[in-house]
User: What shape does this take?
Amino acid sequence: MKKMIGGAMLLTLCFSCSHQQYVATGLQAQRYPIVAADYSQANNEMQSLVDHYKMKLDNEMNQVIGVSTQDMTYGRPESLLTNLTSDVMEAYGNKYTDDACDLACMNVHGHRANLSKGNITIGNIFEIYSFENTLVLIKLKGRDLLDAFESYAKMGGSGISSTVKLLIKDGKLESATVKGLPVDKDKVYTIITLDYLADGNDGLDAFKNSIEIIEPGLTLRDAMMQYVKDQTANGKEISSVLDGRIIIEK
Assistant: This one.
């Protein structure tokens, strides 16, 4: 028999024993309402345990790991926060491929909070990058990359690294360059993105046509956390710029 006092359900398990082999012979369940009186009387020990770990977690989450020079929000067509994230991703991409990483692609709502000016805590990084998305590198033909940029045009922009310049007009792609050159339809480009986007989500169906996928096994959150710590260790603060990497003309 196993009971959880103060929970929403009490389970009773019956076992038979034969030569130390246990077999469940029955299961009963009954729901009990949780009320304040029951909780305070029966769960003081559990509450104490929760409070203990909450205090430890709060202390860790409140640890300052860097400083932001400005308020950074996420949005379209480009923003300080999406630009920062994409540029950090592109830098990491160069660490995990023999060829130079050409660009980084990041969805706007892969960010779940803004970054305020001032101290950056571990908790801030968890708030902003709350998903367990991992970084992946994909090899993609230029014609498919142009299709992906067309998707960017339809959605009004998204996160992309400074190696890219997109001109969008009336929801259509007017021009696109990567590292200062027009996109070559037959060239294979190396892109660092999220596993979520590499699967063709958020309108990026073209990414499903990748001819190779490399998985470093690193989450975006861990990459951003390490970036902030490295910058701080080198005496640098965190900053970003709006540089016209995505321009929308009417």
